[in-house]
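Deliverable D2.4 — example input (structure tokens):
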């Protein structure tokens, strides 16, 4: 069961993450990591699309929306973070991102051992869960 948190306003996940913000004469900078092994990606999610519901055994993630309109699901709760509002994803938590009616961009910082194979998929609209892959292989084998 997925439960929405707030109306359309984000509520921080159980473990919050506070980046370092430093004011400068020209504006400010926001520092998310310092001398920490990380993997950094920018995710672009097309309108109406949703990533698989997944978890990781070896890494935690920090999502920083670069645009408004991001929906984050973490352990059955929905969050609607504003632009630059960090969302922390603990190791082993079931999570996913999705976009509403416009393309969204999210900066993803992974902490810990990063491997694209460290994904346990529970739901996936593209047929990439373990059961769906086994079924596809069995189907292909039966056609030989």
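Example output (designed residues):
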């Amino acid at each position: 069961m997925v439960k929405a948190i707030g109306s359309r306003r984000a509520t921080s996940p159980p473990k919050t993450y506070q980046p370092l913000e430093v004011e400068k004469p020209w504006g400010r900078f926001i520092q998310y990591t310092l001398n920490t092994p990380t993997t950094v990606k920018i995710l672009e999610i097309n309108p109406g699309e949703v990533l698989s519901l997944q978890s990781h055994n070896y890494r935690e993630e920090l999502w920083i929306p670069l645009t408004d309109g991001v929906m984050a699901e973490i352990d059955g709760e929905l969050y609607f973070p504003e632009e630059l509002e960090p969302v922390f994803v603990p190791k082993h938590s079931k999570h996913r991102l999705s976009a509403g009616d416009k393309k969204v961009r999210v900066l993803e910082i992974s902490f810990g051992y990063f491997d694209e194979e460290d994904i346990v998929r529970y739901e996936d609209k593209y047929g990439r869960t373990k059961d769906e892959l086994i079924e596809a292989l069995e189907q292909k084998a039966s056609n030989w």
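The two ends are 40 Å apart (CA to CA).
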